Amino acid sequence: DIQMTQSPSSLSASVGDRVTFTCRASQTISSYLNWYQQKPGKAPKLLIYAASSLQSGVPSRFSGSGSGTDFTLTISSLQPEDFATYYCQQSYSIPSSFGQGTKLEIK
Amino acid sequence: EVQLVESGGGLVQPGGSLRLSCAASGFTFSSYWMHWVRQAPGKGLVWVSRINSDGRSTTYADSVKGRFTISRDNAKNTLYLQMNSLRVEDTAVYYCARDGATRMADAFDIWGQGTMVTVSS
C-alpha cells in the first residue's frame, strides 16, 4: 500500500501570506495526486486534481505542482476563508490513501 | 444541482449491523464509479470501499473486508454500504464520493455531507 506523508502537520499564517504544503508518497504515483480542503463539520472539497489541475470554481490563488513522489500545494495570498485542513490523496492505486492533513491556522 | 445525500447512520452496539445509503442527483449516476470514505472523530480521511459503474466490481480496505459490502442500484440512483460485525473502531462520519474518472485522475470530485456512525455499548 502507498503511504502519504504531509508536512507540516500544522501551520500558522496571516491573511495575505503565501503558504506551501508538502506531500510525499512512499512510491512513485506519477501525477495521480489530489488536494482537498476540509472545514470543521463539512465534507472535503476537491481543489486540485492530477497534481496541478485546478478544479472548476476553485480560486486561482490555489496551485499544485510535482510528480513522482513529491508534491506541493501553494496558496499565493491567504484569504480568511482559506483557514482549514488540507489533505493530499493518491489515486494511483487501490487502496487509495490520504495524507494525515495539514491544519492551517490564523496567526 | 449535482448532489450526494447520505442517510442511515446512527448508534449501534458492537457486533451489530447498519446500512448506509447515498442518494445521487443532478448527474448520470450509472456512468460513475463511487467510493465510501470515513473519518473518525478528530482524525483524517480513510478510504473504505469502491464500486464500478455497473456494480460488478468492488474493492475494500483490509480493515473492513469481509464485514462491509458496497452495492448500488442504478435504477434508484443510490449507493449503499452494508456494515456488519461493527466494531468500536468503525465509529466515524461516513462520506460517499463520486470518482471523477480518468479525465480527473480519479479524484473524488463530489462528496456527500456525511452520516455519523457510532458503535458503542
Features of this protein?
heterodimer; A: 107 residues; mainly beta; 7-stranded mixed sheet; 4-stranded antiparallel sheet; 11 strands; B: 121 residues; globular
Topology:
The complex is a heterodimer of chains A (107) and B (121).
Chain A: E1 4-7, E2 10-13, E3 19-25, E4 33-38, E5 45-49, E6 53-54, E7 62-67, E8 70-75, E9 85-90, E10 97-98, E11 102-106
Chain B: E1 3-7, E2 10-12, E3 18-25, E4 34-39, E5 45-51, E6 58-60, E7 68-73, E8 78-83, E9 92-99, E10 108-111, E11 115-119
Parallel strand pairs in B: 2-11
Antiparallel strand pairs in B: 1-3, 3-8, 4-5, 4-9, 5-6, 7-8, 9-10, 9-11
Q: Low-confidence parts of chain A, pLDDT < 50 over ≥5 residues?
A: none
Rounded Rg of chain B = 14 Å
Query: Helical content of chain B, roughly?
Result: under 10%
The global form of chain A is globular
The biggest sheet of chain B amounts to:
7 strands, mixed
Q: Describe the largest sheet of chain A.
A: 7 strands, mixed
How helix-rich are the residues of chain A, as a percent range? under 10%
What oligomeric assembly is this protein in? heterodimer
User: What is the H-and-E element order of chain B?
Assistant: EEEEEEEEEEE
Please work out how many helical segments of chain A DSSP would assign. Answer: 0
Tell me the overall shape of chain B. globular
- How much beta of chain B, percentage-wise? over 45%
Secondary structure class of chain B reads mainly beta
Structural class estimated from helices and strands of chain A: mainly beta
The number of E-state strands of chain A comes to 11
Strand content of chain A: over 45%
Largest interface: A-B, 27 and 22 residues
Average pLDDT confidence of chain A is 97
Tally of helical runs of chain B: 0
Compute the CA-based radius of gyration of chain A.
Answer: 13 Å
* Strand count of chain B: 11
